[in-house]
Amino acid sequence: FRSVARFQREVFPQHQELFAALATRQRPDALFLTCSDSRIDPCLLTQTQPGVLFICRVIGNIVPPYPDAVGGVSATVEFAAGVLRVPDIIVCGHTDCGVMRGALNPDMVADHPTVRAWLKHAEVHERDADPSAATILALAEQNVVRQLRNLRTHPSVAARVAAGELRLHGWVYNIGPGVVTEYDEVAEKFLPITGAGQAR
Questions:
Q1: What pTM, to 2 d.p., does this model score?
Q2: What is the pLDDT of residues 74-121, one digit of tens each?
Q3: Which of 83, 131, 169, 193 has the fewest CB atoms within 10 Å distance of its CB?
């Protein structure tokens, strides 16, 4: 891509000191686990520079429960929690998620066995061939809460959460208006994130 040449020519020189500091080590502030959807840019969304987020992208922002599906997601979670010792993990879902549509209408993915098998981790039991935006949003929120629960089954996460060393956050990004909500465990609902960075 021509944009790579532009990065090397114009962008890199402006941040040369940052990249020099990152050249041999990383100490990210959080694991940001989100959907592979092309409309989500974690660093743009959080306004962070390189080195701040350890990013895992997978369709449906799904974290299989341990040890059901030991693979790339599980290894990323374990590396972030156990090796990098990140203090925060964020699971971020989003509106208009095609994976949620597929979970509601399995016929959509009937010809894609790997996708169909992956969707079992979303644990959707209802069916709707033509879901509304509100239905997909509600399912995206339920899915984020479910994946937070799955995260807690991973030993590297459970031990550090129990020790008070690791915080888990559930977000949903509403693409149209650019609003991000966070799950409040006390209220058991998603609330807008304020300028202070906390749901209110």
A1: 0.92
A2: 999 999 999 999 999 999 999 999 999 999 999 999 999 999 999 988
A3: 83
